Amino acid sequence: MGTWLGRGLADLAAILDPTAFVIGGGVCEAGDLLLDSTRQTLAEKLTGKRQRPTPQVRRAMLGNNAGLN
């Protein structure tokens, strides 16, 4: 799953050029198990394609409660 998420984020990074992606909801509950492979795939897919640094991938501070008001 982390590999596929990293590939999707790499596509978005190529279009939007963000400095960071914040992952929330149930996905962030998997923690570093998922996010480490996501970060690795993102970096691999963007190597040599950009002049800018690879965007950071962070967990949302509120986790699954990020959408609550």
Describe the structure.
The protein has 69 residues and is an alpha+beta fold. The protein has a single domain, classed as ATPase, nucleotide binding domain (Nucleotidyltransferase, domain 5), CATH 3.30.420. 43% of the residues lie in helices and 12% in strands. It is built from 2 helices and 2 strands. The protein has helices at residues 2-16, 32-46, and strands spanning 20-23, 56-59. Helix 1 packs across helix 2 (32-46). The model has no long low-confidence stretch (mean pLDDT 87).
- In one word, what is the shape? globular
- Architecture per CATH nomenclature, i.e. the level-2 architecture: 2-Layer Sandwich
Question: According to CATH, what is the class?
Answer: Alpha Beta
Alpha plus pi helix count: 2
What is the ordering of alpha helices and beta strands? HEHE
**Main sheet?**
2 strands, parallel
Please, how many domains? 1
State the CATH superfamily name: ATPase, nucleotide binding domain
Oligomer: single chain
Note poorly predicted spans: none
Structural class, by secondary structure, is alpha+beta
SSE blueprint:
Blueprint: H1 2-16, E1 20-23, H2 32-46, E2 56-59
Parallel strand pairs: 1-2
Helix pairs in contact: 1-2
Task: Give a quick summary of the entry.
The chain has 69 residues and is α+β, with helices and mostly antiparallel strands. The protein contains two helices and two strands; from the N terminus they run H-E-H-E.
